[in-house]
Amino acid sequence: MMSSRQGIPRPETASEGDLRFYQAAEAYLDGMLRLNPTASTYHGFHAYDGLLEDLGPSGVQERVAFYREWKGRFAGFREGSLSPGALSDLQLLVNDAGGSLFALEELRSHESDPTLHNDIIGYSALGLTLLSEGDPAWPDRLASLRSRLKELPGFLSKARQSLKSPARVLTSFTAVQNRGNIEFFRRALPLLFAHAPSLRAGLEKELARALEALEGYQRFLEGDLLTRSTGSWKLGRELWTAKLRYTLQSDMSPDEIAARAWKHITAERQRMLELADPLHSRLFPSHHHGEKGEERINLIVGEVMDIVSKRHSRPDELLRDVREKWVPKVLEFIRRAGILSLPPEQDNFVVERTPGFLDGRAVAFFNPPPAFEPGLKKSFWISSLPSTGDPERDRESAESFLREYNDYGLQNLTMHEAFPGHYVQFYYALNSPYASIYKKIFANSTFAEGWAVLCEEQMFDAGYAADEPECELVHRKMSLRAPINAILDARLHTEMVSDEEADRWAMDLMRRFGFQEEAEADGKLRRAKVTSTQLSTYFVGYLELKDLTEDYRRKTGPAFKLREFNEKLLSYGTIPPRSIRSLML
Predict the structure, then answer these.
(1) Considering the entire predicted model, what is its pTM?
(2) Tell me, what's the pLDDT at 494?
(3) Angstrom distances, CA of residue 529 to CA of 173, 232, 374, 501
(4) Which of 96, 240, 325, 340 could be 566's S-S partner, Cβ–Cβ 3.0 to 4.6 Å?
């Protein structure tokens, strides 16, 4: 790698075409990070750490002008003049510019989606506070934090002015998440001020002002904005299809996705019946079902799942069980089966609680280290149990949650989020000699989620829990989520039916066809409404990587080795599967 004048590493190249492109790419990346300083910090590029995004009218105009200009400039590069690696980088930047412009001009997310502002609030502070004890960068990061705290009241004032009439589900969800922001600012941040004693007084002063502004913003979310939150969460077919192209960066059509999703659901449910039948005979010797077809699958599998799901952690032990029981068990199998080489044990990997501003958006997350600082902490986040404030309802919801994420489900979750899923995949991407900084920053979620689903399947195909059919049964249940997610995403946002009808259909699909617990299905329904197109990435990514695996296996014949294939697949970085296909085949 060569270093450009912006401090952005440039791939070694002798091609004039590549050189011209990377000179332009560096200017684009620097400009994009300047417009998105919270994202800049998240990626470990600290030139803009003291700033916050400007989502007011003038800031939005500046963004539109920037992305329009670059969309045009990128159109001037000819594919034939670029190497395969540079071409894939160009495609990533074209997609980023186009997708950003689409969000600004078509979706108008700054007016319709309060979660956008919420994420900036949370990440603006979190990204500056991921350092380890004794890191010499603490004073600089806390000085930037003080600057951002000073900027926060103005940012929140512009948010109030920008937000128009969001969907009620978005505002309600953001109001819950913002309470997590307030708790993080109030409880976590003051503990860090000891890292820079000379800045403490200034930090405390700005934190007090920021908390006052956040409390006012909370009242705005729960009052004024909620009152006028009359917009629809449904994108409609045209907007959803356009957004899907930017999210997936795939050639698959919505119709193909839906057809393959239902085919996958049918096959997985049949396999679940085969696994459940002998378990059912042992657990329920007096239950003789004469039903046929789908009804038989629902009854046999449902009764077995009811028993299996009772094997779960206690609420206060969930995090500990993942860290001390399931991570070691999954790691031991990977080493024994040789699916791929693992990151070094001394790598900075942790299992911890999800930050408050994201808690509840999903049951678990993997938060990779910054692209420019790959040595920082890698977090496998586990969310807290759902809470409504109603003790009786919360007890029922907690039991439903724990039944969904039972002992077997947590093992599957560990595979998806950490080993050999997101953590291992991002470790390869961030340490790959082939992956440019653009492949690291503009990571494609279709590849990331597709790999996480595919590697779960690889684990069980390799014999994980071979003597525990209950474990494979739960794995098959969880593998139903990917196609169900895609079907949910498409139908909810493209079919203009009433909210009540949409909710009934979605809950039936998840609970009857997918055997999901009520808490899981309820949370997924809300997620489908607030994160349009994201839920399609799992199944599309899985399909494209599964197809690539089989094509590569046919190409190499008897010489095919899964370990070598996986390591080669992951070496290109987190880029669209179609780009990796062209590089591998």
Answers:
(1) 0.96
(2) 95
(3) 10, 10, 33, 14
(4) 340
